[in-house]
Amino acid sequence: MASNTNSMTDFLVIGGGIAGVSVGARLSHLGQVTLLEREDALAFHASGRSAALFEMRYGKPSTQALSRASAAHHRTAQGGVLTPRGLMLAAATADRDRFEADIAAMGLDRITAEEARSLFPILDTDAAPLVGYHDQAWDIDTDRLVQNFAAEIRAQGGTLRPRTEVRGIDRTAAGWRVDTGTDQLEARVIVNAAGAWVDRVAQMAGVAPLGVQPRRRSMARLPAPEGMDPAPWPMIFGPGEAWYAKPDAGALIVSPADEDPQPPMDAWADDMVLAEGLARFEAVMHYEVTRMLANWAGLRTFAPDRQLVLGPDPDDPAFVWMAGQGGYGFQTAPAASQLVADLVAGRAPEIEAGIVAQLTPHRLRG
Q1: Are 197 and 203 in contact (CB under 8 A)?
Q2: For domain 4-51+142-211+305-364, is the CATH number 3.50.50.60?
Q3: pTM for the full model?
Q4: Residues 338-353 pLDDT 10s
Q5: Domain 87-134+213-302, CATH homologous superfamily name and number
Q6: 3-class DSSP state for residue 321?
Q7: Confidence band (pLDDT; 50, 70, 90) for 151?
């Protein structure tokens, strides 16, 4: 049992991924922030395994609203974190219906086979003659974004504590007492940004869980085709997001876009699922997968309605949610964290009230 009790902090943020560091940065302007991360470094789990694309027409309407509201920050704050990538959709004739639905949803323009091959030279346009594209998609420098938010916390006098596990949470008259195994921390407000573990943190605190579901997303890194530099190629999807591929550091990362339910854990790729996804990728490419440079998986955590969960819990406003990012954590982080800070501070959010109602935890307590 911990024996040392530290002085009271205003906001104790649990989780050091992009959710935790972004909301910690915003809240650091409202009071003292202490952020706890169980791993040795920030952004270890889902945040460290993201495809890192910023595309404003991706996700539910509430997610798209957060992405639009995040665009200016991504482009300009601390010099910006975006570089051009572009987005392509390629489909076989048999997948025409899903192709038509996807290009309409994502605002893509139809392009010719010749145009498609000029953008993604290994695409087999005989196997996938239906192609859509737009240039309104960007890579996010995820490490820079995380470090910018972390630096903001430190600049406001906050504390980042890696290698600190939350072992127990008790309600007190003044707020919360958190047991880390080595000491006890007192906080006025807990911010639950623990990713796949958010419901476990809530249960420790005696707060009703949300019913979130972590789902595995597997990735493989493949060598670039011989003699080719994929750096300028766009990110490319199959219809219905059956797979996707993206240039990354001189190689290609390919995902089967799997969403298999998993318990909170340090996830790893399923070999069979990965093989099936790579086969779907190969079927429309002039490229044979003969080896992988690496493979990994991350957990994307979804609320029951697949929208983010942001703001104070209606049953205990001293317990604040920054949860359910579902793979949209990086692209929505600036606006999602600002919304949480606005709600905590009692300020009117910049985001339209109808969207806010779709994002706050009240919707899940009815």
Answers
A1: no
A2: yes
A3: 0.95
A4: 999 999 999 999 999 9
A5: D-Amino Acid Oxidase, subunit A, domain 2 (3.30.9.10)
A6: strand
A7: very high
